[in-house]
Amino acid sequence: MAQRWSISNALRGMFQRETITEETWEDLETALITADFGPDIAEEVVEALRADVDRLVVDDPRELRRMLRETLEERFAAYDPTLTLQERPAVILVVGVNGVGKTTTIGKLARLLASHGQSVVVGAADTFRAAAVEQLATWAQRAGVEVVRPEREGQDPASVAFQTVQRAQAGGIAMCIVDTAGRLQTKGGLMDELGKIRRVVEKLAPVSEVLLVLDATTGQNGVAQAQAFIEHAGVTGLVITKLDGSAKGGFVLAVQERTGIPIKLIGQGEGIDDLTGFTPHVFVEQLVG
Ligand code: GDP
């Protein structure tokens, strides 16, 4: 099935031409900008390809498709998408603003890890929204993993995170995924809260990953949103959600390059199995066609 964020349709006409002309380059740049790569990356990619085409004296547009794939793959692969989960328990903090798909991602990630034979506990440290706790508990149940809930509404999120790691240690559970709040209106407070969760958890165990969840449909605005978390929460990896929607695949490369943080997982649907590791080669194949 063609991905909706694929640029293959936009490029089809271009690759069907007899030779590479000035129009080819204009079409390519437009396709990349439309796909949300951002004007800077679009221009850089076009310039790099132009130079290669001149150097190698290429005039077959089909050859250009292969070169485009190679160029994009090289840029994507400059970052390591591997999750670092060697510690036991491996503690994963999941951060991001409300609505991006954080809770859903935790459910999917719990399932993904469980399907690889790992025992998992999730912690509901977004303690100010009773609905958030219930939603996470429902996902945990679907994924077939344990959940640690706050004992009362408004309990200190750091203490729930602490209890989750304690539970993992006591039960010999391999993976510990902690949900956190995402109230953007109190950014200072939220960042302080995330810092405290981290400090408290680190009294028990090192934090293996801090995953920032970003919604691909926010496009370039998502990059700005990411900066505060990156500055204050020690983000180690990005999860891009809603790539099944009307989102443009170029956002994925733009956000990785502009933040310098690797993409580790991508979400492509609302179902529990709709989360996969990020594989540059596969992604570029789908993107360029
Ligand atoms: P949170 O507030 O960040 O915890 O967000 P939720 O996990 O509650 O998700 C918000 C909405 O986004 C829900 O309707 C989810 O079903 C939806 N959602 C999450 N991930 C994806 C995804 O990868 N694709 C699509 N289409 N929807 C998603």
From TrEMBL:
<keyword id="KW-0472">Membrane</keyword>
<dbReference type="InterPro" id="IPR004390">
    <property type="entry name" value="SR_rcpt_FtsY"/>
</dbReference>
<protein>
    <recommendedName>
        <fullName>Signal recognition particle receptor FtsY</fullName>
        <ecNumber>3.6.5.4</ecNumber>
    </recommendedName>
</protein>
<feature type="binding site">
    <location>
        <begin position="179"/>
        <end position="183"/>
    </location>
    <ligand>
        <name>GTP</name>
    </ligand>
</feature>
<keyword id="KW-1003">Cell membrane</keyword>
<keyword id="KW-0547">Nucleotide-binding</keyword>
<feature type="domain" description="SRP54-type proteins GTP-binding">
    <location>
        <begin position="89"/>
        <end position="289"/>
    </location>
</feature>
<keyword id="KW-0378">Hydrolase</keyword>
<dbReference type="InterPro" id="IPR027417">
    <property type="entry name" value="P-loop_NTPase"/>
</dbReference>
<dbReference type="Pfam" id="PF00448">
    <property type="entry name" value="SRP54"/>
</dbReference>
<feature type="domain" description="Signal recognition particle SRP54 helical bundle">
    <location>
        <begin position="1"/>
        <end position="76"/>
    </location>
</feature>
<dbReference type="InterPro" id="IPR013822">
    <property type="entry name" value="Signal_recog_particl_SRP54_hlx"/>
</dbReference>
<dbReference type="InterPro" id="IPR036225">
    <property type="entry name" value="SRP/SRP_N"/>
</dbReference>
<dbReference type="Pfam" id="PF02881">
    <property type="entry name" value="SRP54_N"/>
</dbReference>
<keyword id="KW-0963">Cytoplasm</keyword>
<feature type="binding site">
    <location>
        <begin position="241"/>
        <end position="244"/>
    </location>
    <ligand>
        <name>GTP</name>
    </ligand>
</feature>
<comment type="similarity">
    <text>Belongs to the GTP-binding SRP family. FtsY subfamily.</text>
</comment>
<dbReference type="InterPro" id="IPR042101">
    <property type="entry name" value="SRP54_N_sf"/>
</dbReference>
<comment type="subunit">
    <text>Part of the signal recognition particle protein translocation system, which is composed of SRP and FtsY.</text>
</comment>
<feature type="domain" description="AAA+ ATPase">
    <location>
        <begin position="88"/>
        <end position="265"/>
    </location>
</feature>
<keyword id="KW-0675">Receptor</keyword>
<feature type="binding site">
    <location>
        <begin position="96"/>
        <end position="103"/>
    </location>
    <ligand>
        <name>GTP</name>
    </ligand>
</feature>
<comment type="function">
    <text>Involved in targeting and insertion of nascent membrane proteins into the cytoplasmic membrane. Acts as a receptor for the complex formed by the signal recognition particle (SRP) and the ribosome-nascent chain (RNC).</text>
</comment>
<keyword id="KW-0342">GTP-binding</keyword>
<dbReference type="InterPro" id="IPR003593">
    <property type="entry name" value="AAA+_ATPase"/>
</dbReference>
<dbReference type="InterPro" id="IPR000897">
    <property type="entry name" value="SRP54_GTPase_dom"/>
</dbReference>
